[in-house]
Design goal:
Elements (H helix, E strand, L loop, with lengths): L3 H13 L3 E2 L5 E3 L3 H14 L3 E5 L7 H16 L4 E7 L16 H11 L6 E5 L14 E4 L2 E4 L21 E4 L1 H15 L6 E2 L12 H11 L16 E2 L10 H12 L12
Parallel strand pairs: 3-4, 4-5
Antiparallel strand pairs: 1-10, 2-8, 3-6, 5-9, 6-7, 7-8
Helix pairs in contact: 1-7, 2-3
């Protein structure tokens, strides 16, 4: 049992976190993988200003083709629409296990770009380490104008329930202008501004050895990155705090520990790994 003084210190940490107001009516939880797929297609079709997608991978399969085709259709309908896709640099450039290594997701991105001249969709590879075995991109989520879809899902047949198979994840839709702008700003300033970040939808991509030093610099810079937001919410209202977890003693892990030590009656942990 924690002493009352220690518990108060944990609660104070949570109270002092910067928070953004979140209207309760702007929170929707989806309970089926198919509903998540439909929500993605709906948001893509109706986006007016920007679409930012971050995922571990964006697969060249039926589900991936459906989503990328929908993105190109949205872009052709509104050329001013800013569409950016961020996936893991290494994963996108290797074939799936048991398949021809030349048929990579990156090759498909380039083929789609060639097939749609004048409707450019930028697809970036994010290398969080010099080799895939040492670490991959786990910053996942979807931003559509003033809406954030929070999920750990990537884009492929299994995550989007195609061919009688599916992998269930969390699906929360947050309508929050400040949250969407904060997350978009983080991607623009902390990720895409780095010279280590390369386009995958182009014919010529640098080899890992050519950008190895840039990747190391980028990884080092990520350790000090965090979301830039002002505390616009009180502790008496529903609020949301975006957090980044990278490196030892990061703010996300600290917050989880403070949450655990502040719990009084019930704690539920949902995770695929422990």
């Amino acid at each position: 049992m924690l002493s009352k003084l220690k518990k108060v210190k944990h609660q104070q940490y949570l109270e002092q976190l910067a928070k953004l107001p979140q209207p309760a009516a702007g929170v929707v939880t989806l309970y089926q993988t198919e509903s998540f797929r439909k929500a993605l297609l709906d948001k893509i079709a109706n986006a007016q200003r920007y679409i930012y997608i971050t995922a571990l991978y964006f697969e060249h399969d039926d589900a991936g083709r459906d989503i990328l085709n929908a993105l190109y259709q949205a872009k052709m309908a509104r050329l001013e629409l800013d569409i950016k896709i961020m996936v893991d640099w290494h994963r996108a450039q290797r074939g799936r296990i048991g398949e021809d290594a030349s048929a990579t997701n990156a090759d498909w991105y380039y083929q789609m770009a060639v097939a749609h001249p004048g409707s450019s969709i930028a697809i970036f590879g994010i290398p969080v380490n010099t080799r895939e075995a040492l670490g991959v991109l786990h910053l996942k989520g979807f931003i559509f104008d003033d809406t954030v879809i929070y999920s750990g899902a990537s884009i492929n047949d299994v995550y989007l329930q195609q061919h009688q198979r599916y992998r269930y994840d969390r699906y929360h839709i947050l309508n929050n202008t400040q949250l969407a702008a904060t997350m978009k700003s983080f991607i623009d300033q902390s990720l895409l501004s780095s010279p280590a970040i390369q386009r995958l939808d182009q014919a010529h991509r640098p080899r890992n050895t050519q950008i190895k030093s840039l990747i190391k610099q980028f990884r080092h810079s990520l350790k000090s990155c965090h979301y830039q937001l002002q505390n616009n919410a009180t502790n008496e209202e529903l609020a949301v705090t975006p957090l980044i977890g990278l490196g030892k003693k990061n703010k996300l892990n600290k917050t989880i520990m403070h949450l655990m030590n502040s719990t009084e009656k019930k704690m539920t942990i949902c995770t695929p790994y422990y």
